[in-house]
Amino acid sequence: MSAQEWIWLLVGLTFALYIGIAIWTRAGSTKEFYVAGGGVSPLANGLATAADWMSAASFISMAGLISFSGYDGSVYLMGWTGGYVLLALLLAPYLRKFGKFTVPDFIGDRYYSNTARTVAVFCALIISFTYIAGQMRGVGLVFSRYLEVDINTGVVIGMIIVLFYAVLGGMKGITYTQVAQYCVLIFAFMVPAIFISFQMTGNLLPQLGFGSTGVDGVYLLDKLDGLHRELGFHEYTSGSKSVVDVFFITAALMVGTAGLPHVIVRFFTVNKVSDARKSAGWALLFIAILYTTAPAIAVFARTNLIETVSNQKYEELPDWFHTWESTGLLQFEDKNADGLIQYVADAAVNELQVDKDIMVLANPEIANLPNWVIGLIAAGALAAALSTAAGLLLVISASVSHDLIKKMIRPSISEKGELIAARLSALAAVMLAGYFGIHPPGFVAATVALAFGLAAASFFPAIVLGIFYKRMNKEGAVAGMVVGVLLMLYYMTRFKFGWFGGGTQANWWFGISPEGFGTYAMVINFAVSLGVSKFTPAPPKEVQEIVENIRIPSGAGAAQDH
After folding, report:
1. Percentage of the chain exceeding pLDDT 90
2. Cα angle vertex 460, ends 89, 458, to 5°?
3. Is residue 365 part of a domain?
4. What is the DSSP code (8-state) at residue 395?
5. Strand partners of residue 96
6. Residue whose C-alpha is closest to residue 53's, from 360, 380, 358, 290
7. Using one digit for the tens of pLDDT, what is the confidence trace for 407-436?
8. Distance of alpha carbon 272 from the chain centroid
9. How many domains does the chain fold into?
10. Which of 12, 33, 146, 519 makes an SS bond possible with 248, Cβ 3.0 to 4.6 Å?
11. 3-class SS string, 458-474
12. From CA 138, how far away is CA 61, in angstroms rounded?
């Protein structure tokens, strides 16, 4: 079978599986739509959380980013992995014990204020739309290559598929669809990695392979450093980012993780607090499989790319090059008209433009792997992008139908009416998400990193102080969230979109990139929240008692009586 036939077969089979699961597990109540009825097992929830967490940014873009940035790309590995640990240990069990469907619901009740709830809904929508733009861009990338359509058409196809099983199944359908999607995406990620590791180093484990010697007896990383030096790029194993920026990006990704509404809501789908802890542990194990493999794929892909295209005759290049060239994601301009590809760091001389996001997808083709592996990577990439997009859509629909309509605008709405509102808001959300997918602010990982910065700047201080500081009141929380999110939005739109007069890297405040600025905005949020709460009235006694109660483990009171 040809590569294209394998792609259609494997993508078709996986889509049929997802849609079948969505129909089989469709939501019949608001509780099933929002939190899958609260009865998901820890193992299934761990698999679903891992799929929700490992988006197109993890599957498609992270290894590509590390492939081009080398050591600098490690901030994404450290930030996203460390952030999940922070979320699992510091916040998830307490939020689960508080027992609310959504983050705005927690903030609205903890801070006894509809104003706080409204601000939280606004923040959840901004974060989710920024994040989903990256997912839809990832879906468009995959479809543009594998279904041979342009990226914009690919985004539209992805919108229709996500909408179908997110709107029909709600959280119940999404949870069990994500279990299947995790199995597909991890198999698709690992198979090419194992193939290429064995091909290049004789080692089956990619985690060990990329630190081993190649078939020529030279350590793979030493070889890649040498190739980079020859072409004028900075050494792969050395960094070019400042220590300050590395710290701020890593911290923003970590604390942003702990404020992401679509990940937090997963801990409400289990039956009890202990199950939330268990599912966090399972998810961390499943996430680690992909995250420890990504640096290896980055090294394999980068080495293969340079050796395949650098200083080669254009007309003698393999078919994969021309296939990707037709998508516009790989571009060759023969500046000196010698027919050879000059792939170098000097922009004036360089003749090859490579989109970072194609590295994982093109990797099996560059390494000349069997056609069924190419089909598998297409199915895996779509599983990664669609699983997270569906989770984000649910956050958006829940924020509108539950937090805005049910809690504030029309409290008397029936359960059936709320379910209709949730599905209609998901429909509107996917339309807007599609627009952002067609006009994203950057490549997938960078776009997603901005969502983490927004979550760090807005939600993290409000959630942490809401759990661990009894004196924290509504005035402080609202002021902190407003200042934090507006500061992050200003910085992001100025340096990513050119608004407010625009700016270059030379104008970054304290040398902090937009991806890392969420940490700075978070610190300001904490300072404003604590400062305002100090000079305004303390929360009501019953709210302070709730804060005391959510930090006591379930059953502790009963144990003391015996």
Report:
1. 12
2. 160
3. yes
4. H
5. none
6. 290
7. 778 878 887 887 788 778 878 888 887 887
8. 26
9. 1
10. 519
11. HHHHHHHHHHHCCCCCH
12. 8
